[in-house]
Structure formats: C-alpha cells, structure tokens
Design a protein that fits this description.
The protein has helices spanning 2-11, 15-38, 42-50, 53-65, 69-82, 85-99, 103-125, 130-151, 163-169, 217-230, 242-257, 307-311, and strands at 174-186, 191-203, 207-215, 269-273, 299-302. With 323 residues, it is of the alpha/beta class.
Length: 323
C-alpha cells in the first residue's frame, strides 16, 4: 500500500511525500523480509525476492533521479540490505543448525544433508526422471523450511548494519564501489524505459556518492564482445592479438571506470561489488588510453556485498580476487 502511494506521489511530482513513503516502506519491508525469509526454504525466499523487483526499480529510479548525498545514502542502504541476502540467510541458517545441540535440529541437518547429496548424485548420473528430481527438490525445500523455522529464534538479537558502519571500516587508502543495475521507471506512465547502471562510491573522507553510468546497452555489448574475444576458439586457441583485445578493454574502461576516476584519486585498494553481467568482467584487465592495465595501479578485490567489510575488515584480503 505504501509503495503504491509512493508511486502516485512520484507520478504527480510530489517528491518529498514520495521520499518519506519510500523510506517507511523500506523499513517495513526489511523487517518483514528478515522475519519471513529466515524461516522459509530457499525456493520460497527466491520467490519473495522476485516480488520485490518492481519495488527495486521504482526505488532506484527515484533516488538516482534526485542525485544528492542523502539520496546516495538511501540507494546504498538498499544495496547493503538486499545484495547477497539469500546467501547470507542460507549461511546463517546452516551455521546455527550445525552448531545446535538440539537432537531434533541435528536430525533435520543430517536428513537435509543426505537428501541434498542424493539429489546431486541423481542429477550427475542422469538415471532419475524429471518427476523424481522435482519431488526431491520439493522435499529439500520443505526440510530447509523446517530447519529455518527451528533455528530462527536464535536470530532475534542481530544488529542491523548501516552505511556508516561500512564507512567506518574503510581506511583512508580504501574505497568501495558498489554497482547496481535497474530498470528505469517512467513515473507518469508507470512503465519501464531503459536499463540503467549506477555506481555507489564510498570513502571515509567524502562519504557516499552516486555516479550515473547511464544506459547499459553499450556496456552489455562490449562485455559480451570481450568475453568472446578471450575465450578459446573452436581449435582451443586463445586470442593473443592485442589489436583485437585492447580496443574492447579500453572501451569498457571508458564506459565503466573513467567516470569513477575523480573519486578514486589517492586510493590504493578498491573493493568492488559487481551486479548482473559485471560479474563476468575481469576488472583488472581494463586498460586506459595509455595502455596501462587497471591492475598496475589498484589492488582490486571482489565482494558479494558490503557486509564482508563490516564483519571483519581483515577478511577482505581472503575474498576471491580477480587474477
């Protein structure tokens, strides 16, 4: 209801009222999702988050259209809460379940583990039909739901992580870049336009900045082209011709990295949180107009979400890095 009213205020140009309602809806939905998703199975969690896609597009369209420090903080707060949410919940449930001393929970863990192994074996062997696999997947979802509900009571005291918590963990030489794709919403017509990309840049001195990288069509095409160029051909040979690879790498640098440069000065360590097709991009191989690779000037570390930094800043060096 709040989201629908916020959309109406957006369409009529009453932006202050829309902003207030979006903030209220965001707090409410976060609380609801945390309560519901923790006690649900993976299939159910995924279905709930899919329902939030329209909200995400409206939310990010609104905050990127009102580009300011305040709006940048709100956009990052959305990413901080939602990115990697399914993985965090699954990991938390598994950890709590495995550490529990309750016989009932231990029995559920053992059954879930064995059935999961059975599904993997049947899938690899190819001897099971689709009906059998679907029934087993449904059983696993129900088992995980039971397990989640059993351990959800241990979750009550969790403290919410804020954008300021992330900023405080960054040193003067570190910067966090969080990329987000979204479908741009025409507020008056309430229909989607183009897919847009924004980058949220965090550093201790300047706080949080929102940089609009624009329509993603050129970025999407360039990444797909680059991926094709670096993959082996039909004979299994790799392309080593710099006259083919370098122009595409430089184009991607100009599209994605060049707009960020004013915010990366004097930074040695860059933590990147990709989104969408950017997960396929080897950032270290991006090349500037002088022929220098990004890896020559920055230490690039890939994160799934900003939560990694808040848990322990030292963990970041152990996160998988681009080679």
């Amino acid at each position: 209801m709040m989201a629908n009213l916020a959309e109406i205020y957006q369409a009529s140009g009453q932006r202050d009222k829309a902003e207030k309602l979006w903030q209220e809806h965001f707090k409410f939905s976060n609380k609801f999702l945390n309560q519901v998703l923790l006690g649900a199975g993976e299939k159910t969690r995924f279905a709930y988050l899919l329902q939030q896609e329209n909200i995400k597009n409206n939310y990010l369209s609104f905050y990127s259209s009102r580009n300011s420090q305040k709006m940048a903080v709100q956009a990052f707060n959305f990413s901080l809460t939602r990115k990697g949410q399914l993985l965090r919940i699954s990991s938390k449930v598994n950890m709590l379940a495995k550490n529990s001393q309750q016989p009932e929970i231990k029995a559920l863990v053992e059954k879930f583990t064995s059935q999961k192994q059975l599904l993997a074996n049947l899938t690899i062997s190819g001897i099971a039909d689709n009906k059998q696999l679907q029934e087993l997947e449904e059983e696993l979802n129900n088992l995980e739901m039971q397990l989640s509900q059993k351990v959800s009571s241990f979750q009550r005291s969790q403290q919410e992580i804020t954008p300021n918590d992330v900023l405080e963990k960054l040193s003067d030489k570190q910067v966090l870049v969080d990329f987000l794709f979204f479908k741009q919403v025409d507020f008056k017509k309430q229909q989607y336009k183009t897919i847009q990309l924004i980058a949220l840049v965090l550093d201790k001195k300047h706080g949080i900045k929102l940089i609009k990288l624009g329509d993603t069509q050129a970025i999407d095409t360039a990444i797909k082209t680059y991926r094709q160029q670096i993959l082996p051909d039909e004979a299994g040979q790799l392309t080593n011709r710099k006259d083919i690879l370098n122009p595409t790498s430089q184009k991607l640098y100009n599209l994605i990295w060049q707009p960020l440069l004013p915010y990366l000065a004097n930074k040695t360590d860059v933590y990147l949180i990709p989104d969408g097709i950017l997960h396929l991009l080897p950032f270290k191989a991006l090349m500037d107009k002088h022929g220098h690779y990004l890896a020559e000037s920055k230490q690039i570390t890939l994160l799934t979400s900003a939560h990694t930094i808040t848990h322990n800043s030292q963990q970041c060096v152990n996160v998988r890095q681009f080679n």
